[in-house]
Write a structure and sequence with these properties.
33% of the residues lie in helices and 18% in strands.
Amino acid sequence: MTAHHNALPPAIQPLCPDADAITVAVSGAGGSGAVTAGLILLAAARRRGDYGFLTRAAGPQVRGGESVSILRFGAQPIGCIGDRVDLLAALDWRNIMRFVDELPLTAEGLILTDPASGPVPEAIGASGATVRTIDFSGSARTHPGGRANMVAVGALGREAGLELAALLAGAEETLADKGQAIVDAAHACIRAGYENAPMRAASPSPTKRPSANGQEATPRWQLSGNAAAGLGALRAGVRFVAAYPITPASEMLEWLAPRIERLGGSLIQAEDELAAINMLVGASFGGAPALTATSGPGLSLMSEGIGLAIASETPLLVVNVARGGPSTGLPTKSEQADLDQAVHGLHGDAPHLVLAPLSIADCSFSVEWASRLAERLQSAAILLSDQILGQTQATIDPPPRCPPVPERKGVDARGIGDGEGHGDFARYALTSDGISPMPRPGQPGCTYTADGLEHDPCGTPSSRASDHALQLAKRRDKLLAYDYGAAWAEIDCGAQQETPGVEPDDIEAPRLSLVTWGSSWGAVQEAASRLRAHGIHVQAIALRLIAPLQRAALRSALGRAPVLVIELNHSGQLFRYLHGERSLPASAQSLARPGPLPLRPAEIVAAARQLLQMP
């Protein structure tokens, strides 16, 4: 393999066991402020030093409908929603049945409900959770400008062990752009909810971590995966973005728009996805690193333009924030079902990069790395995020940077034909690493034809079999020969990998390998931690670089242990892809189910124990 700068992945952080975290949910009709309540609770938890993971769900309606926010927070990094909801505040019961599967309550849970909303629905009450009534709406009316969701914030915060000062500071931070009158009303309602909440004898929160009067105990970042992806793009030097709005990718574009302009770049809303991808080809051809963000339907429309970028060896990055499909499908829900499309969805032999971020923080790392790889390798890259990663708000440690990757190969004028151009410049020269010099348009002595036709090394259109075969091999081999370093995957072997003085030969071979990709990594990593806590040595592997697949490295990592491939789609797309690449043992098994419900650690633990034939 050709030696290049190796990109090192972010350090693996252990995810919290279920007992060390608490899950709080707020539900209500659209416009009730359920999501805002979740954001305030997340900010308050951050201020007392906790990590947090806030997902939101809504219906496909443009306005109205229903919404729910589900927040899990604790002392250790959190990468997924847990197995159960400990606290639920129901602002009303309208359309709650649309969320019943997303709110797994147990007899240990607590439901806080407004008596004006009527009785608890049978499907919710069947959980056996304790029900307490709090007059959210009545209490809110006693304060000018008061809202029921703020009363719920106070009640939930007290039950969850959050200090009042942290809740008030979280509200001021979250509502800062609404004006002081709104903040004052929110503070009054939060105090009322906090002071009047009926406490149980035993709170579900196992620990109390003081928040230093509302000041952050440990500086951490709070951002969504879409925002982190935008950060990674700017870090990579992306200065041109063209896109057509689509759920759930639009928030990435909204985050980027003002920031890329301040850095001297441009973001253009194209008339459709076809225009967007062709704008990217033009901008990149002109020398500007370029990116678009879309979702599955938009990626379908972009396929021909991506093929043009591959044929002309013009670098670009497509960030696909996937949702449930096919067609319009589940536009506000998540699913890992675009893998086949990303890997195989282009016509002809069109080798390209396919990557997937593994966490909120990793959205920044992976986008930066993908953009830099596309620039260096003069290829198209597709990065598969999804709704869970994109729209989840999380409290995290600052996202790591991508180590340096060599830039786009320029042109040394001393090596250019006769210096006069006239088609003699070998833009697609067959170099040892497959990467040819790429001049900027107008560079003296660098005239060549750039289009989607097959060509000879100078870019002159050619239908000769020899030219076609040579250029096909060139575009493939440059991706295969590149040394991607350790960032191709995350491999979590548990404490053994970090034990000082332990030689590799002394490390116990795992009894099971869990293999996954994308947003399922958080649940898989936590499931592996739980299995290890019961004495089962498990390693967890998450692929960040999906194509070209690092076959030898994956086979080496898997060893001889049984393999379980875990993903959130109906057909087991990663499982079939890895088998097609001859990278899995014949005995490997698949845990694949469709969304929109995210994978939870308990179901992965159950599948692993079944594979190992354990009770």
